[in-house]
Amino acid sequence: WSVMAGWLIMGIVNFWNIPPHMGMDVEGHLQYIQSVAESWRIPLANEGWQMFQPPLYYLIAGSTYRLFLGMCDAETVVRIVKLASLLCGMAQVEIVYRTIRCAFPKRPALQIAGTLFGGLLPMNLYMSQSLGNEPLAGVMTALIIMIACRIFAGSMETSRETTALIGFILGLALLTKVTAILVIPPLLVFLAREAAGHGDAFWKSLRKFLRHAVVVIVVALIVSGWYYLRNRM
User: Fold this and answer.
1) Would you say 88 and 128 are in contact if contact means Cβ atoms under 8 Å apart?
2) Residue 152: helix, strand or coil by DSSP?
3) Where would I find the H helices in 104-201?
4) pLDDT tens across the length of the chain (233 residues)
5) HEC profile for 22-66?
6) DSSP code of residue 183
7) Residue 148 and residue 10: Cα distance in Å, rounded?
8) Alpha carbon distance 99, 62 (integer Å)
9) Measured distance CA(110)–CA(121) in Å, rounded
10) Quick count: other Cβ atoms within 10 Å of Cβ 25?
11) CA 4, CA 139: separation in Å to the nearest integer?
12) Residues 233, 224 contacting (CB under 8 angstroms)
């Protein structure tokens, strides 16, 4: 809660102090957001600097931009849109805390150290105060890791519903930023380890792993595949 309070104070102080157009590639992100807000259409990659990015963040940000544009001046609207990134950064603090608790359930000192380390990463602090899809992608991938840790700790079962949930979140992550694909290899390793960790015969463990892996990949493709198929066509 101390880390969360620090994030909240930082957000309140910097809401007006940080210039609205300050941040990495912020002009390109703002162009994408304004394009969605004006036309309610997902642009093609050749239509702007950052238009190659998947659309989920920009659909959320564009909706917020359009909602507040008639109520506030343009700079204030940009500041309001930036709050989504701040909330994602704060959400990652909570996810880190819950993940560390699963990893070290009886080690309060390590829980504190892990929460401080994960909650105060400089890049997360920086990116969460600007426009961009990185904080939302970070939340999605962190959720996948948290669920995997909870399964490993025994507080969740590797059921079809759980693997479908992982696939759904993975699909949302891929709709936010394509680099979320990097979580797939370690996720598959985890599923293989989980399938083999109950003392079953090799072929039974293999079938269990394949069943879980197929559910994750198929659900993720249902959620995000349309966007990448559209780009190919």
Assistant:
1) yes
2) helix
3) 108-119, 122-127, 134-153, 160-174, 184-196
4) 899 999 999 999 999 998 888 888 899 999 999 999 998 899 988 888 889 999 999 999 999 999 998 888 889 999 999 999 999 999 999 999 999 998 888 899 999 999 999 999 999 999 999 999 999 999 999 999 999 888 877 766 777 788 899 999 999 999 999 999 999 999 888 888 877 766 667 777 788 888 888 999 999 999 999 999 888 76
5) CCCCHHHHHHHHHHHHHHCCCCCHHHCCCCCCCCHHHHHHHHHHH
6) G
7) 31
8) 31
9) 16
10) 16
11) 15
12) no
- The CA distance from 56 to 217, in Å, is 19
Amino acid at 25: D
List the Cα angle 119/125/129 in 5-degree steps: 135
Q: 224 is written with which tokens? A: 């995000």
The tokens for 82 are 């930036």
H or E element at residue 214: helix 202-232
Q: Which candidate, 41, 203, 180, 197, places its Cα nearest to that of 216? A: 180
pTM for the model: 0.89
